[in-house]
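Sequence in, structure out.
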Amino acid sequence: MARLAQTAGLTDVQSEILATVRQFVDKEVIPRAQELEHSDTYPADIVEGMKEMGLFGLTIPEEYGGLGESLLTYALVVEEIARGWMSVSGVINTHFIVAHMIKQHGTPEQKQHFLPRMATGEVRGSFSMSEPDLGSDVAAIKTRARKTDDGYVIDGSKMWLTNGGSSNLIALLVKTDEGAEKAHQNLTTFLIEKPEGFGEVAPGLTIPGKIDKMGYKGVDTTEAVFDGYKVGADKVLGEAPGKGFAYMMDGVEVGRVNVAARACGIAIRAFELAVEYAQQRKTFGKAIAEHQAIAFKLAEMATKVEAAHLMMVNAARLKDSGARNDVEAGMAKLIASEYCAEVTQDSFRIHGGYGYSKEYEIERLMREAPFLLIGEGTSEIQKTIISRGLLREYKSRS
């Protein structure tokens, strides 16, 4: 059992789930990740294995066929999977966010319609806020849903849908005319069912194709173009137009814990690779781990891994308790993603010239880690969220 990134106070069920996932990652994911990532191949067999383990229903209540586990369990599972290959964690990340949003805000009919099939992995979710002309400025969304006599018509383009082609359910944030003065109160979340695949997958909905990325390969990242797409009013999440922003932000808090967990997983793997290589590689008659420069670097890397893990666990436990965790989730995402990039680069340096070779796993991690600095909000956005929360909490009375 590794010393780093251990979590106190887990139940026997949680420990058993994590042990099973870790075994799956060691046996099925790590040995195949390099080949699948370099060929940009969707990990279909691995996804089927996760279905059989019940991971798609991890946080879905038992009454809908899921395991009913906590956000903490989910985050620790994601950490284990990302340790093997971050792209596999991406397959379930947006699925978990959409399931959480439906569980928390959906109507009884929407819960019954979606959650049992999401628990088995038959329905897999993707999550869509971003657009080609905007990133973090969500209130500036241009994609619009126009109300008609029998529902809505959606027009516009969305960007950066993880699982955009392989999913068959999109949680879609668009602008609706609610007459509200504040821009974010004119945003509505729709639950869009669609076939898997690329091209015009439904009348008025086109998934153009996979975006070619520096890393995070295997999992598909896409655009989604809506042109006169018709959807019924019953597909408004919670049947409450104008509340989509709040629902999405609730999902994003889950997503930020997820990104922190993924960053922890990559950092753990980068450290594992570095500490193993440093004990095998010899210079000047001894293993490089015995040189103080490398030993100190390993100590710093391990400390960062541990700190990021603890902050991620704290943010997850706060969310599970029902408490507001926007500041803590922002802190966890900020520190975990920044430390992940630093630990991965230190591992790369320890590998020396071999780290630049595609034969070594650290080369892949070097391309994956930067994504986490951006996903679910950049570090600068996290600092904005954190500072606003702190100023709210420590409001001056002068």
